[in-house]
Amino acid sequence: MSTRKFQKASIEELIQWYVEGSISYEQSLKAADSRSANRAHDKVAAAYRELRNRGETSHLLPLLQSKDEIVRTHVAVHALEFAPEFGEPVLLWIEKRPGLNGLRAEYALKHWREGTLKFP
């Protein structure tokens, strides 16, 4: 997707693409398809960047209740930038779970606390 497409998208479309990208990212990793995983990650990052540019990142916070753990993980990590009081508790819970999301949460929290976490 082009940058222009993200810039013209509605908030609802950006949120939808964020969710779709997150789910596709997890599915691609499970299938060991790194190219698709990278494209999906880029979609999530681009949607987040556009929401941030518009000052609309708070629209992501309801996704902290998503049934999809990967969506909750992505939102919680991004929330560390704009609403850590919401993102951190979710990451602390996910960190205790087995699997890649737990590992992602652990490292995101570690880097955030060290001040080295970079946002797209």
TL;DR?
The chain contains six helices and no strands. With 120 residues, it is mostly helical. The chain has one domain: Phosphatidylinositol 3-kinase, accessory domain (PIK) (Serine Threonine Protein Phosphatase 5, Tetratricopeptide repeat, Alpha Horseshoe).
Helix share of residues? Answer: over 70%
Structural category = mainly alpha
Order of helices and strands: HHHHHH
CATH class: Mainly Alpha
Name some characteristics of this structure.
Serine Threonine Protein Phosphatase 5, Tetratricopeptide repeat; mainly alpha; 120 residues; 6 helices
Could you describe the 3D structure shown?
- The protein is mainly α.
- The chain has a single domain (3-114), classed as Serine Threonine Protein Phosphatase 5, Tetratricopeptide repeat, CATH 1.25.40.
- It is 73% helix and 0% strand.
- The protein is built from 6 helices and no strands.
- Helix 4 (69-82) packs antiparallel against helix 5 (84-95).
- The mean pLDDT is 96.
- InterPro entries: ARM-type_fold (IPR016024), PI3K_accessory_sf (IPR042236).
Summarize the SSE layout with pairings.
Layout: H1 3-8, H2 11-30, H3 34-54, H4 69-82, H5 84-95, H6 100-114
Helix pairs in contact: 2-3, 4-5, 4-6, 5-6
